[in-house]
Automatic annotation (TrEMBL):
<protein>
    <submittedName>
        <fullName>N-carbamoyl-D-amino-acid hydrolase</fullName>
    </submittedName>
</protein>
<dbReference type="GO" id="GO:0016787">
    <property type="term" value="F:hydrolase activity"/>
</dbReference>
<dbReference type="InterPro" id="IPR003010">
    <property type="entry name" value="C-N_Hydrolase"/>
</dbReference>
<dbReference type="InterPro" id="IPR036526">
    <property type="entry name" value="C-N_Hydrolase_sf"/>
</dbReference>
<dbReference type="InterPro" id="IPR050345">
    <property type="entry name" value="Aliph_Amidase/BUP"/>
</dbReference>
<feature type="domain" description="CN hydrolase">
    <location>
        <begin position="5"/>
        <end position="278"/>
    </location>
</feature>
<dbReference type="Pfam" id="PF00795">
    <property type="entry name" value="CN_hydrolase"/>
</dbReference>
<keyword id="KW-0378">Hydrolase</keyword>
Length: 312
């Protein structure tokens, strides 16, 4: 019996620096309502969905920097989103900047959560693969200071049971690293939710930057196929404060095929009926890890190349 999950990717157009949380939450609610109207049970929002992409600037005033982070979730500003999800009976993935204080020390993470159809948080993930630099490079219109404003996630790549399947999360640059998908794949993941904010000038190299959208899809399609999982990639896109960001949000099947794609760089909802059993065809044949994967040989090869010391 197929396990169908009606899923939406809710792409966002630009968020201005002056936009309030209330403004942004109203946009998220409108797309959530549209997704529910199309019969969806789950909606995936972007990375840092509550604010403009602030790591593009050097922000030296700590109070200003703190204003971009959430210290609780839900907060007073985001509570309407949770309440509407519970009213509609729809779950969601949300990316945001998280600030926690531990032992009197501020810790900052690029975070996402899964919320079930009752409005309850059932999973949290913190971005592991942070791109960019900790110090400004200078000589460019925009910086990419994620390493300055976030620390690497400390929760690993967990999976969560919900929506009738095994669900996982990743954020933006995580999609480029095969271990992101493989760690979840080894846990039987059936759908990976992935929000991103990807500028066209992140490589500062015209040849590389011209391939931004190609590489975006390439990495998600490869991760989906090689781990027999659905991948829902949702962008924040368009011209945001002068920075051009890529869109083309997609829903990718375990076959690696794109089954739905956004065609604007504005707020746009795309949907697909995702059969969570579709990945079983690949998990029991080509990508049957137990039968075909040979991790013991990987270390042997690396030892022989001298990349790591021989095992005792």
């Amino acid at each position: 019996m197929p396990r169908y999950l009606m899923t939406a990717s809710a792409q966002m157009g630009p968020i201005a620096r002056s936009e309030t949380r209330a403004d942004t939450v109203r946009r998220l609610i409108a797309m959530m309502q549209e997704a529910k109207g199309r019969g969806c049970e789950l909606v995936v929002f972007p990375e840092l969905a509550l604010t403009t992409f602030f790591p593009r600037w050097l922000i030296e005033d700590e109070a200003e920097l703190d204003s971009y982070y959430e210290t609780e979730m839900p907060s007073a500003a985001t509570r309407p989103l949770f309440d509407e999800a519970a009213r509609l009976g729809i779950g969601f993935y949300l990316g945001y900047a998280e600030l926690v204080v531990e032992g009197g020390v501020k810790r900052r993470f690029n975070t996402s959560i899964i919320v079930d159809a009752t409005g309850r948080i059932v999973g949290k993930y913190r971005k592991v693969h942070l791109p960019g630099t900790a110090e400004p490079l200078g000589g460019r219109q925009f910086e990419h200071l994620e390493k300055r404003y976030f620390e690497p996630g400390d929760l690993g790549f967990p999976v969560f049971r919900g929506f009738g399947g095994v669900m996982g999360m990743a954020i933006c640059n995580d999609r480029r690293w095969p271990e992101t998908y493989r760690v979840m794949g080894l846990q039987g993941v059936e759908m990976v939710m992935l929000g991103y904010n990807t500028p066209f000038d992140h490589g500062n190299n015209q040849c590389m930057d011209s391939l931004t959208l190609f590489h975006n899809h390439l990495s998600m399609q490869a991760g989906a196929y090689q781990n027999a999982t659905w991948v829902v990639g949702t962008a924040k896109c368009g011209n945001e404060e002068g920075s051009r960001m890529g869109g083309q949000s997609v829903i990718v099947a375990p076959s690696g095929e794109i089954v739905a794609m956004a065609c604007t760089v504005e707020d746009e909802v795309i949907t697909a009926r995702c059969d969570l059993d579709m990945g079983n065809t690949y998990k029991t044949t080509i990508f049957d890890f137990a039968r075909h994967r040979r991790p013991e040989h990987y270390r042997l090869i690396v030892e022989r190349t001298g990349a790591i010391p021989p095992s005792e």
